[in-house]
Amino acid sequence: LLSHGIASERRDYKGNHALHKLAGYGRRLTYVSKERKQKFEDILMLLSNENSGCSVDITNNDGNTLLMKMASKPFDFIEHLIEKGASIFQENRQGVCFATSAKSKLSERDFETFTQNYLQVLSKSAKSA
Length: 129
Known about the structure:
Elements: H1 18-28, H2 34-48, H3 66-69, H4 75-83, H5 98-105, H6 108-128
């Protein structure tokens, strides 16, 4: 995208950025495939590129950050976003944050596992800072 001159901060008519478009495309693939995995890797590449201007905190018209768009995605990818600085407590326009969304979608045990993983990622980030 960047090599074709597309600005990462440019919005479409629905208010979605390139990152949100990639996230939505990944969601429409109904099973974990090579194609879906590649979309996640594309997003990470854009976030890692200093010149891309892509941010984990950028929001679309619904007030959703990339993390909110990824609420139903594999946790290993979500952990990558958290490592990049995404907050699970940032709210969208409806006042829903990722933590609230995840709690409503996951079993109690899965949510506990997620919370432990989140705290581990945060402690790793704090140590490296």
